[in-house]
Specification:
Helix content: 10-25%
Shape: flat
CATH architecture of the largest domain: Sandwich
Largest sheet: 4 strands, antiparallel
CATH class of the largest domain: Mainly Beta
Number of helices: 2
Strand content: 35-45%
Radius of gyration: 26 Å
Keywords: Signal
Oligomer: single chain
Length: 150
């Protein structure tokens, strides 16, 4: 008996709610917003933009330490012809990025405080890349870093 009363009350409440004209309009507005609003927004055009088809080699993050940063990854030609390594130096002095591509000699790239550098690496074949970032003065490094292949 109590089950029938609860079932009846629930059914009556759902009919009242569905008959309310505001609920139908709100639902229609939400559906329309979902169809017309892009799920991707750019809040700061100075930030590195990564499109959904990019392969994340180094996910964007902040590194803050007295120790050097070291990361290796492999470029695969099936993932795209180009890769970018982006470093934004927010520390108090210059940091240096030593990048080794395959068996080539490493290149040293100075990145002054408050600046950013994007290094483009062409993908010819399956290649290992080593990134080593250090400070020559021993100061605490604070930087943002990311790498992608597209």
């Amino acid at each position: 008996m109590i089950f029938n009363v609860n079932l009846g009350a629930g059914l009556a409440l759902s009919i009242l709610l569905s008959a309310h004209p505001a609920s139908a309009i709100e639902l229609e507005d939400r559906v329309q917003d979902a169809l017309t609003t892009s799920p991707i927004t750019v809040e700061n055009t100075e930030d590195p933009i990564v499109t959904p088809m990019d392969i994340q080699l180094i996910r964007p993050f902040n590194y803050s330490s007295y120790n050097a940063y070291e990361k290796s990854f492999t470029l695969d030609p099936d993932n795209g012809e180009t890769s970018n390594l982006w470093i934004n130096n927010t520390s108090t002095d210059t940091v240096y990025a030593k990048i080794t591509v395959g068996s080539l000699s490493p290149i040293d790239i100075p990145i002054k405080r408050g600046t950013q550098k994007t290094t483009r690496i062409g993908v010819i074949g399956t290649t290992n890349v080593k990134v080593y970032i250090y400070s020559s003065t021993g100061h605490k490094m604070d930087m943002n870093i990311s790498a992608r292949q597209f």
